Amino acid sequence: MAVVFIANRGEIAARVLRTVRELGHTGAVAFPPVDADLPYVQDADVTVELSGPRDFGDVDTMVAAARSAGAELVHPGYGFLSENASFARAVEAAGMVFVGPSPEVIELMGDKAGARAAAVRAGLAVAAGSDGAVTSVEDARAAAERAGYPVMLKAVAGGGGIGMAVVPDAGDLEGAFTSVTSRAASVFGDSRVIVERYIERSRHIEVQVMGLPGGRAIALSERDCSVQRRHQKVVEESPSPALTAEARATLLERAAGLCESVGYVGAGTIEFIHDLDSGESFFLEMNTRLQVEHPVTEAVHGVDLVAWQLAIAVGDATVPDHGVEPRGHAIELRLYAEDSERFLPRPGAVTAWRMPEGPGVRVDAGYAPGTTVTPFFDPLLAKVIVTAPTRDEALELARDAIGATTIEGPGSNLDFLARVLREPEFVEATHDTGIVGRMSAVRQ
Fold first, then answer.
1. In this structure, how many other beta carbons lie within 10 angstroms of the beta carbon of residue 21?
2. Which listed residue (116, 203, 248, 289) is catalytic?
3. What is the pLDDT of residue 160?
4. Phi, psi of 153 (to 5 degrees)
5. How far is CA 280 from CA 122, 147, 167, 205, in A?
6. Which H or E run includes 173?
7. Rounded to the nearest 10 degrees, what angle do helices 173-188 and 137-147 cross at?
8. Model-level pTM?
9. Secondary structure (3-state) at 250
């Protein structure tokens, strides 16, 4: 058995910790004083106190915390340092195992320009746009003219919906370029962007991949993540109602092929934009970590992805028992401490907390009664995941689950999630990535 340090907090730390302890390992975490009463801290076997919230993003501090906990493996979760090649290198240099791909692959696939080039080499289709990163408004304008408006500007080092802008026409390009590059330089320390044709009627689809020691990669079924606000996902489901069986098979084959071509080892996600008019799927990017929405894949395949990650990290190429084809339908709803209209954070002390229960319902929570949602972190409170034999049944179960949920003290997006689950275009699966904007416009 090993000591596994989880270099994260909140919901994902609690979720990883659950599997770590089920496997008989020792679970270690680090925490700032503001998190002292949260479940991930209370349930850990070993805890290391940090000086403050910013420490989660500091390589040296987190490596030191892992070493002081006696860690043998370090699981980065998502966000923070999870896709930081310097962190992965520092973990390895300290004699510990990083639960993820190699630093070199993190650098390659974490750079949107580099990942786009790797996808092209592997035979994947990409949307028309710049051949690589652009650093001047003149180069961006030339790439946009070749691609055709509207276009999307995306920070090369971006993530989490940060450093992106849709540019409707040439007149808006300079302002958008200045805004995106400034934001990217401030947040990521890298002002470079890529330019891609913006596909207006599209679905955001991603494929869960597991790269095995030895070079083989397995692609599990896709997730549909088209319900988004500010380019961030709030509702995900698997399988996607937008794909035919043939399109699904092609997407999975291409995703696995890309992983094998770059020597990817561990859990990752290949993201695609699916054009609803042409039926084509174009490579967007790769996330070199576990995704927030991984539970829907676990639900339809009957597999624990965290346990699989830990096995791969120590060189085990065994493929665990799992359903090769997706069974049933799963929907994940992200509960945020934010209002349901403008989606602005609403932290506060939790005075009432009731999560749904019952067959087909899973809750991954980062908070509990009596805890406090502080303004220092992403406002994700919990994830409600439902699984049923059909999509219609999953929708009904999701509505019941949200109706049975109570959160008081901080704000919550419960009302918004309830609206999504009854929105005709979502119910009928005719929606695209613009659904939230349309819902918001109707209410104004």
1. 15
2. 289
3. 67
4. -100, 130
5. 17, 16, 22, 11
6. helix 173-188
7. 120
8. 0.93
9. helix
Contacts of 444 (CB under 8 A, 6+ apart): none
159 class by beta-carbon count within 10 Å (0-12 exposed, 13-18 middle, 19+ buried): buried
Report the distance separating Cα 336 and Cα 119, nearest Å: 33
- φ, ψ for residue 421, nearest 5 deg: -70, -10
276 is written with which tokens?
Answer: 């609803």
| CA 310/CA 294 separation, integer angstroms | 15
How many angstroms separate the CA atoms of 168 and 170, rounded?
Answer: 7
Alpha-helical segments (H) within 291-413: 294-301, 305-313, 391-403
SS3 state at 223: strand
Q: Is the pLDDT of residue 231 over 90?
A: no
* 3-state DSSP helix/strand/coil % of the chain, to nearest 5: 35, 30, 35
CA trace torsion 301, 271, 53, 43 (10° rounding):
0
Q: Which helix (H) or strand (E) holds 208?
A: strand 202-211
Cα(81)–Cα(404) distance, rounded to whole angstroms?
A: 35
| Number of neighbours of residue 403 by Cβ within 10 angstroms | 12
Q: If 0-12 CB within 10 Å is exposed, 13-18 middle and 19+ buried, where does residue 307 land? A: middle
Structure tokens belonging to residue 228: 């988004």
39 to each of 7, 35, 90, 204, 366, how far by Cα in Å? 15, 9, 28, 32, 6
Write down all domains in the chain, each with its CATH number in brackets.
3-99 (3.40.50.20), 128-197 (3.30.1490.20), 202-443 (3.30.470.20)
Whether 363 has a pLDDT exceeding 60, the answer reads yes
pLDDT band at 126 (very low <50, low <70, confident <90, very high): very high
The answer to whether 236 and 298 have CB atoms below 8 angstroms apart is no
Peptide bond into 101 cis (omega under 30): no
H helix or E strand, kind and range, residue 104: helix 103-110
What would the mean pLDDT of 27-33 be, rounded to a whole number? 98
3-state secondary structure of 168: coil
289 catalytic per annotation: yes
Q: Are 408 and 414 in contact (CB under 8 A)?
A: no
| Euclidean distance between CA atoms 221 and 229, whole angstroms | 24
- Please give the helix or strand (H or E) that residue 89 lies within, else none: helix 85-93
Taking the chain, what is the end-to-end CA distance rounded to the nearest angstrom? Answer: 56
CB 208 within 8 A of CB 297: yes
pLDDT category at 230 given cuts 50, 70, 90 is confident
Going by pLDDT thresholds of 50, 70 and 90, the confidence category of residue 131 is confident
pLDDT in tens, 60-76: 999 999 999 999 999 99
